[in-house]
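Field log, afternoon session.

UNIT: design team B
ACTIVITY: writing a sequence onto a fixed backbone
BACKBONE:
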């Protein structure tokens, strides 16, 4: 039977075996720093969503906005229903939403891909990271871009990353959609795990950024023709590294659901080192290895059993 695109995305990174074992746990909280979510969408009927402040729950006032479209799409990959056109990865996990994008922002279309590029300043991102960490999350999903070229000099953002480290909160971030090779300032901190996009064959997408830091400590995940919830109702298909990130975030949430006592370092070792022999032997390039969820599960089973 031919797989629909959303199922194929789950298949190529080995998420289906994990999804058969667990739907996640409500004590595994995922911070989504993104646009607001259209919580009226049927995909979120059973989702557990809270925000840093109460007034943020109804912040999606314009379902046609890029911000709401982006936030709804990312959240749908993580906690939309399982019995939908786009089965969610960890629907029983809790989402802590911190809207950061303005609904007035627009999208950019480059070539055949719609490249959705919501952005934030480093200061705004630093504040949001601290807020969701204080809200008790275990993971932070950053499907965002940064609008400032001076990020390397942003002490506040560095301090926010360091705060996440002290609180044992893992951070996953999009590698970017410029299709370029080089150093990504948005990912300069070693605590951030960058996620590049691949196609439905597991090959690097032409839209994805790559580079030494991404290749060394990052992962590839599906980012082309992804299906998820569309703000205002229904489902749609979009491409970008923004949508590759929640595949890894969701996979980690499932691993942590199965091994709730696992330490963050053990989770990181599992997702970055549980690959084929070439990767285990230390072969790295500017292109990161494909996220291997099932292999990460087997890796953790051995480590936790020791």
């Amino acid at each position: 039977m031919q797989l629909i695109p959303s199922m194929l995305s789950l298949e190529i990174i080995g998420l289906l075996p994990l999804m058969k074992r667990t739907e996640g746990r409500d004590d595994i909280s995922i911070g989504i720093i993104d646009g607001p979510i259209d919580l009226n969408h049927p995909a979120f009927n059973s989702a557990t969503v809270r925000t840093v402040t109460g007034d943020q729950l109804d912040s999606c006032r314009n379902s046609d906005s890029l911000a709401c479209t982006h936030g709804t799409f990312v959240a749908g990959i993580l906690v939309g229903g399982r019995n939908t056109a786009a089965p969610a990865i960890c629907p029983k996990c809790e989402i802590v939403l911190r809207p950061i994008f303005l609904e007035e922002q627009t999208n950019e279309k480059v070539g055949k891909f719609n490249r959705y590029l919501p952005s934030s300043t480093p200061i705004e991102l630093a504040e949001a990271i601290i807020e969701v960490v204080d809200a008790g999350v275990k993971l932070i999903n950053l499907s965002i871009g940064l609008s400032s070229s001076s990020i390397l000099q942003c002490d506040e953002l560095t301090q926010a990353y360091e705060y996440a480290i002290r609180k044992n909160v893992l951070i996953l971030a999009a590698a970017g959609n410029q299709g370029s090779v080089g150093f990504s300032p948005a990912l300069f901190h070693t605590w951030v795990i960058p996620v590049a996009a691949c196609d439905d064959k597991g090959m690097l997408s032409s839209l994805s950024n790559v580079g030494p830091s991404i290749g060394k400590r990052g992962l590839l995940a599906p980012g082309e023709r992804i299906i998820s919830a569309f703000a205002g109702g229904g489902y749609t298909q979009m491409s970008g590294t923004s949508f590759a990130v929640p595949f890894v975030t969701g996979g980690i949430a499932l691993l942590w659901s199965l091994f709730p006592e696992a330490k963050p370092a053990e989770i990181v070792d599992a997702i970055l080192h549980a690959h084929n022999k070439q990767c285990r032997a230390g072969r790295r390039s500017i292109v990161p290895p494909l996220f291997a969820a099932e292999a990460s599960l087997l890796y953790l089973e051995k480590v936790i059993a020791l």
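LOG NOTE: Residues 66-79 form the longest helix (14 residues).
NEXT ACTIVITY: expression trials, pending approval
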